[in-house]
Amino acid sequence: MSTIETTGADLRTNWAGNVTYRAREVVRPTTLDELRTAVTSNPRVTALGSRHSFNLVADTDGVQIALGAMPEVIEIDSERRVARVAAGLTHARAAAALDEAGFALANLASLPHISVAGAVATGTHGSGVRNASLASSVVGVEIVRASGDVEVLDADHPDLDAHRVGIGALGVVTAVHLAIEPRFDVAQRIHTGLPWEVVDARFEDIMSAGYSVSMFTGYIHDGIRQVWTKRRVERDDPVVDLEDLGAMPSTSPLHPVPGSDNAGVTEQAGVPGPWHERLPHFRSSFTPSAGAEIQCEYLLPASDAVPAIQALRGIGEAMAPVLYVSEIRRVAADTAWLAPSSERDSVAFHFTFHRDPEGVAAVLPLIDAALAPFDARPHWGKVTAMPADQLHAVYPRLGEFAALADRVDPERRFRNPFLTEVLG
Predict the structure, then answer these.
(1) Global pTM?
(2) Options 3.40.50.970, 3.20.20.70, 3.40.50.2000, 3.30.465.10; which CATH number does 74-182 get?
(3) Around Cβ 160, how many Cβ atoms within 10 Å?
(4) Helix and strand element counts for the chain (H, E)
(5) Which of 94, 71, 83, 87 is nearest to 144 (CA)?
(6) Residues 85-97: tens digit of each pLDDT
(7) How far apart, in whole angstroms, are the C-alpha atoms of residue 280 and residue 307?
(8) How big is the chain by its Cα radius of gyration, in Å?
(9) How far is CA 415 from CA 210, 343, 355, 418, in A?
């Protein structure tokens, strides 16, 4: 088993550099037996994915277990339309392999750089009025428990919905079984300059203009800066023409973060291409988004989208000094207990901030207050000022999840300070 001492190692910090991990070492098992030994021989362990979380969900004062050295397994059952994917694989690698075999996932996040298991564990999602979170594609989980035993949960297991978004509390996931479908092509177009009054009047129509739609804004006088529309070539008919609503089609590639190099974005201008090269906003070979940044995100009922936007516009000037851009997406209801879109069609408000911890800390309570009337749920891998008691209020099954975590991990081997605060 290879071990990386954390001092001076790249794995000492998260991807954006705003979190420094406290783990005394990072273990990189190469086999399942090595992974089981790492779990059972340490009193505190936490799985470490692609390090794209912006909070302490993957931190520990014990040992972090990184799965990047485990075998890169992708097994496809074409009859059942299920793919068994190693937990440590990135979506970029998994999606390319699936596409080559003639298959696809229903949706992807904006970044293809993130690990498959880490993405589902925190409730990560893409966009689309009919597309639920990435965890909704999970039809099975393979997980190493605190005892070192390996458990396989299939689609009929009563606790699968609890494990779909497990926030690292239930064990170390080694593989996920994902529902797949025949591969498809997507065409992506960008429009600019959508006025606020149009958004207020036609929000759901705008978000239904494609298979996946994202709006980018700063919540100030400029309205919606960009609308990214991704349509499945073989079947999507537009509900509305954005040009009829006052938006202008972009004639050159655009990056959602003002001032950023557009070389890193996926192809635009309506050029059809493979699903995994269009559904993400960013190419896997480039640093995504702004790089040095801090992110937060809240999801709330889709029916409250317009008043929530109006509330955020009320604090737009206060956010402006630290905000690169905010992305607004739609996410379909999910059955995962801890999915931010659990049991309700949702609108997601994502914020990409400058890497200014003090400045961001000052605006987080403003966002919490603006969105509190709508029972907003924070993303598990991003920063928030929401206290634990409020998390239990907006995530109604969080107490039930905490009880399950104690049942499968009675010694609390997988607990870290973040989970202790959240779960009790």
Answers:
(1) 0.94
(2) 3.30.465.10
(3) 18
(4) 11, 20
(5) 87
(6) 999 999 899 999 9
(7) 28
(8) 21
(9) 41, 27, 28, 8
